[in-house]
Structure formats: structure tokens, C-alpha cells
Amino acid sequence: MQLQTQTRPKVISVQVLEDRIDAATAIQFKEKMRDATKDGPARVVLDLARVQFLDSSGLGAIVAVKKLLGPDRALELSSLTPTVEKVFRLTRMDSIFTIHPSLEVAVKHAATA
Amino acid sequence: MPQPPDPDARPAHLHLSFAASPVAVRDNLVRMLAVPPLSGLSAEARGDAELVLAEVLNNVAEHAYPDRVGPVSVMLCRVKDGVVCRVVDQGAAMPGHRLPEGELTAGPSLALDDLPEGGFGWHLIRSLTRDLVYVRDVGENRLSFRLPDAEHCLDL
């Protein structure tokens, strides 16, 4: 599970460099996200542009990261592929997360927030 | 007048058996998606098929065989309105010999600490399949369902 992290003044962005977050990698994803976001700005954007497959374990891990960050920090998402978007929609978790169309939009949004 | 059989019209079958570990589930999903009958579906229907089969097979890996890696078999059969799937394992029965309802508890009004980290699987399975049937018989879990063709799928 490879993640690429970039820290800007108001936002830390994490790109998932894998095509799947599934039952085989969910725990590893959660641990790497915890390490990647330990310090830094309150707002975290998780960029899922490369992720073609997310199952319920992967979704649960993303929710767990949001909870780990706590009430004073925010986990936002960007660049959902159609299959990943559908998982969020069917489970109504699209109502829990702020979802941006691209990482660029998410970063701009954070800069002006 | 009887029609001569058309070889292209024969339904495509696929039968796979493997040991249900999370890594084997992933590897076998990739294999299944690459060949008929799933390879012939639309991109969206293939995505749905992969998700449903992942949920079903990971449930077997986690709940039917909680303490060991056990065998699971998958049979896929093309029918006129989708793909019929049958998944059989010899693990623990479903609680109460019934499928979980898969009701969602998520909503914007939930506090952060109350957000669910699981329980999405059966909701996804029920949302994306038709004719879902579970039978517990002579030590086996037998689950069958149909993955509908995209054009037959209800608007979700």
C-alpha cells in the first residue's frame, strides 16, 4: 500500500498509489494514513483518482481514518472513480464526506476556507 | 421448425474453487473478471459484479472460516437477464440460518464516534443483486443470486 503525501500551508493531501483498497489491504491503509496525517494542517484530502476498486472493508477503513482524525480535523475526498463513487452513494457515506471533483479543486477550496 | 443449435448462444459457465483468504479472494476476483461470463458485461455491470463477489467471498473468509482458511467454490452462469452466481462453503452457518438484513445506520445526523466502520457489505450485496437465496444444508452454506444486466437494473 503506497501513499504519496504533500503538505501545503492549509491542507495535507494524500494520494493513494494503488488501484484497490480492499479486505486484503484495509488495515495497512488505515495504519499508513494514521502515520501520514499524524502532524500537519487540520484539513486532510484523500485523493482516490487511482483507486478503481473499493469494497466495504476499504470503505470502513476510510471511515476509521476520519474518526482517528477527531472532531477538530477534517477528512475530505477527491477524484472518485465511478465504481468508488457508487460505493459511497449506495452506503450513503457520500453524505458524511465532503467530496471534491479533483485534488486541485480540493486544495483551492482549502486555501480559501 | 426446430432451430439448429447456435454455438455462440450457449451460456458461458465458470467454476472456480479456492481457499478463502483475503489475498486469494482478490486474486480470484481478478481471474473471474477477465473471462466469460463476467468479461462480457458492461463496465458498470463488471464493477458491480466485482464488488458483490468481493463482499460475498470476504464474508466467507472472515465469518464462515473465522479460525482457519477453508474452501469456497464459485459458479457463474450467463442467463438471458444477467449472470447467476452460486457460492458454496463448508464453514460456519449464518447466524440464525438467515442472511443479515444489511440495514444502514449512516446519515448526516450521526456523531463522529457513532459512524459505522462496517456492516456495509450486505447492504451492497442486497442493493446490487436479485433473487438472493441462502440455504444451509448438510454442513454447507449455499448462496445464490443474479447479477442483473445493467439495462435491467433498477435505478438505484
Please render the helix and strand layout as text.
The complex is a heterodimer of chains A (113) and B (156).
Chain A: E1 3-7, E2 11-16, E3 20-21, H1 26-36, E4 43-47, E5 53-54, H2 56-69, E6 74-78, H3 82-90, E7 99-100, H4 103-112
Parallel strand pairs in A: 2-4, 3-5, 4-6, 6-7
Antiparallel strand pairs in A: 1-2
Helix pairs in contact in A: 1-2
Chain B: E1 13-19, H1 22-34, H2 43-64, E2 71-79, E3 82-89, H3 121-128, E4 130-137, E5 140-148
Antiparallel strand pairs in B: 1-2, 2-3, 3-5, 4-5
Helix pairs in contact in B: 1-2, 2-3
Please give a structural write-up.
The complex is a heterodimer of chains A (113) and B (156). Chain A starts with a strand and ends with a helix. The mean pLDDT of chain A is 96. Chain A contains 4 helices and 7 strands, in the order βββαββαβαβα. Chain A has helices at 26-36, 56-69, 82-90, 103-112; strands at 3-7, 11-16, 20-21, 43-47, 53-54, 74-78, 99-100. Chain A is globular and about 35 Å long. Chain A has 113 residues and is of the alpha/beta class. Chain B has helices at residues 22-34, 43-64, 121-128; strands spanning 13-19, 71-79, 82-89, 130-137, 140-148. The relative contact order of chain B is 0.18. The model of chain B is unreliable at 152-156 (pLDDT under 50). The A-B interface holds A 20, 22-24, 53, 55-57, 59-61, 63-64, 66-67, 70-71, 82-83, 86-87, 89-93, 95-96 and B 22-23, 25-26, 44, 47-48, 50-51, 54-55, 58, 61-62, 104, 106-108, 110, 112-113, 115-121, 123-124, 127-128, 156.
